[in-house]
Write a structure and sequence with these properties.
binds guanosine-5'-monophosphate; 4-stranded mixed sheet; Rossmann fold
């Protein structure tokens, strides 16, 4: 019997909206979920490690990946490259996994072209003030980087309407519950 196709989920939202925490909690809740690990040229933040949060690449390595067609999509975000490697995703697709891509808005548009069936979810912070508090609370970035991320957030928030779902991240528990509900509804439909 052919394995059922897994769901493809793109999750976006401004830096500091809490996407990363929500995605990790979803993965822990459901063992069919896999999270795509992106490559980036930005340096590791805090305790981040190569091959865990991201594949941290040099600009040269990243550009080689682009030339070789190794990414489904890539984008520049606040002076760095970010991209979605194809290989692991292809294997998970064959296994029928549900795959989450935590990527920004331009990446979402590109993924939607490649995989029109993908479900897109925008995680919204309760307010710009909360967003700024969360970004500062990380304590890992310079004032300049925080300002650049806030500016990018202001540009991204109006694009929420392009997504299939908008989920407000008031608390991590509620936000995870809402996203899990979306995943389960789509599985039932599939
Ligand atoms: P951060 O530096 O905070 O980890 O990520 C910055 C932004 O890049 C976030 O909005 C994140 O969702 C996005 N991002 C992470 N990986 C990818 C990717 O592979 N492709 C694209 N287009 N955006 C990504």
């Amino acid at each position: 019997m052919k394995k059922a196709e897994g769901l493809l989920l793109v999750i976006s939202g401004p830096a500091g909206a809490g996407k990363g925490t929500v995605v990790q909690a979803l993965k822990a809740e459901d063992d069919n979920i896999r999270v795509s690990r992106s490559a980036t040229t930005r340096p590791p933040r805090g305790q981040e490690q190569n091959g865990v949060e991201y594949y941290f690449l040099t600009k040269e390595e990243f550009e080689k990946g682009i030339r070789e067609g190794g990414f489904y999509e890539y984008a520049r975000y606040v002076d760095n490259y970010y991209g979605t490697p194809k290989k692991p995703v292809e294997a998970w697709r064959r296994e029928g996994r549900d795959i989450i891509f935590e990527i920004e808005v331009q990446g979402c548009e590109k993924m939607k072209k490649i995989f029109p069936e993908c479900i897109t979810i925008f995680i919204q912070p309760p307010s710009m003030q909360v967003l700024e508090e969360r970004l500062r609370g990380r304590g890992t970035e310079t004032e300049e980087k925080i300002q650049a991320r806030m500016k990018r957030a202001a540009e991204e928030l109006p694009l929420a309407s392009l997504y299939d779902y908008v989920v407000v991240n008031d608390t991590r528990e509620q936000c995870c519950r809402d996203v899990l509900q979306i995943i389960r509804d789509h599985r039932t439909r599939a």
